Amino acid sequence: RKEVEQDPGPFNVPEGATVAFNCTYSNSASQSFFWYRQDCRKEPKLLMSVYSSGNEDGRFTAQLNRASQYISLLIRDSKLSDSATYLCVVTAGGTSYGKLTFGQGTILTVHP
Amino acid sequence: NAGVTQTPKFRILKIGQSMTLQCTQDMNHNYMYWYRQDPGMGLKLIYYSVGAGITDKGEVPNGYNVSRSTTEDFPLRLELAAPSQTSVYFCASSAVRPRGEQFFGPGTRLTVL
Fold it and tell me: Which residue of B has its CA nearest to A33?
């Protein structure tokens, strides 16, 4: 089983749509969780951290379910500029502090 | 601040050649990382460093070496390049006690023929 698994998509949605991405992780000792965004042929950039209580940043909402080892990202009112690959990222537990494990990414295309 | 810079941006190597990918950060971060990203795949950790003089292997270290003589620089050395090392290489850094955010350089696209 992969350490971090995402539905690769691609997701093709019209502007204004709501889209949700899911991610599962295998290491129950994982401590921190993030969504990164990667534009085509560019470096990954942090989109948002994911907290146990859930958190929201504008049109983006992230949820974490530790019992099910599941992370989600909801994007409301999609914009053309949201087109990118979204990477689910998890830090290892124990002594591996700071080391990130990346999912393979979910491709989102928002069309007019 | 320039953040994390990488050179070169692109490189083509022949099988068996060697090269060094340069990475520099100006944020005074202690943690630095090297990743590779193959098409359609997630990033895989090659090596990481928790401070000057300290390095450790990641998930895919074979065929690579690193050094960390200063806080700012974390070069990645490829010895005896092989076609399997064709990839995009990203360097990243994070603060001593990060909330997890890593800052990435723009990447180096390497092709081994």
Answer: B100
